[in-house]
Amino acid sequence: MDEMSFKDLTAVSVLARSMGSELAHQIGRCIATGHYAPGSLIEDESALVSRYGVSRTVVRDAVKVLVGKGLLEVRRGIGTRVKPREQWALFDLDVLAWQLSAQADPTMLLQLMEIRQLFEPQAAAWAAKRATASDIAEILSALEAMSADVANMELFLKADARFHRAVLRAAHNEYLFALSGIIYSSLLSIIRLHNPDVGNNRRIVSFHRDVHDAIAAGNEVDASLKMAFLIEDASSRIKASTALAS
User: Fold this and answer.
1) Which fold is adopted by the domain 3-87?
2) Among 115, 122, 159, 202, which one is most buried in terms of CB atoms within 10 A?
3) Which tens digits make up the pLDDT trace of 50-87?
4) DSSP code for 119
5) Which of 189, 188, 133 is nearest to 166 (CA)?
């Protein structure tokens, strides 16, 4: 489960990249995985040209991309420095994906789960209030796929992502839907930290079914509570697996 898996879950088309964009991805991964630490200087333009075998224009284009995502700052006479993590565009899909190239970080994952706990229960409540018949059918379709694929972790994960994406879409708030990358990043990180078994996946399906049933019934309070319980259960499993590994 890596950056390409993340792009797959987000349903983002991976189009042919320009050389500048490709270099930005390579350097971005190096930053996200700690090869370039926050506060450190990356190589100068000439060194990057030599290292990657590209032109100065390509290097400048790549740096512009990373400056735009908050990872780098360029200081005349000093060089190009990696900015502190708190200044990164952490919700940016590329930045989330690059972080998946690093070793699984339980602290980062629990922080992602805290953010999910802030907005997904409310999204479920809005879905219960606003969902169309088509929205509910999509949520059910994802739920049925989860149930059918409990023994196949890759397919199960894709169906799980579809379920949460469908709930966000059913809330009919495009700004809320823009936060979906947080969900995909946390799902992939959970799998990297521990491998759920079939029995546990069936248990997870039952919690998702409770969310679907509440949304389909138009019960806003219950939908919010069921989603909050689902996320809290996942957080508890992460904490337990981290404690066992330490």
Assistant:
1) Arc Repressor Mutant, subunit A (1.10.10)
2) 159
3) 999 999 999 999 999 999 999 999 998 899 999 999 99
4) H
5) 133
Provide the sign of the torsion angle of the four alpha carbons 171, 176, 179, 183, taken in this order.
negative
Single-letter amino acid code for the residue at 21: S
Strand partners, 75: 79
Residues 230-241 have a mean pLDDT of 86
The pLDDT score that the predictor gives to residue 15 is 43
Assigned token pair, 99: 């972080």
Neighbours of 209 (CB within 10 A): 17
Whether the Cβ atoms of residue 145 and residue 60 lie closer than 8 Å to each other: no
Check residues 107 and 162 and name the one with the higher pLDDT: 162
CATH 1.20.120.530 residue ranges of the chain are 104-244
Average pLDDT rounded to a whole number, residues 163-169:
95
Fold classified for 104-244: Four Helix Bundle (Hemerythrin (Met), subunit A) (1.20.120)
- Give 42-76 as a DSSP string: PP-HHHHHHHHT--HHHHHHHHHHHHHTTSEEEET
Run of H or E including 81? strand 79-82
Tell me the pLDDT tens digit for each residue of 139-151.
999 999 999 999 9
Cα dihedral sign, 234-239-244-245: positive
Our CA angle for 180, 157, 198, nearest 5°, is 145
pLDDT score recorded for residue 89:
92
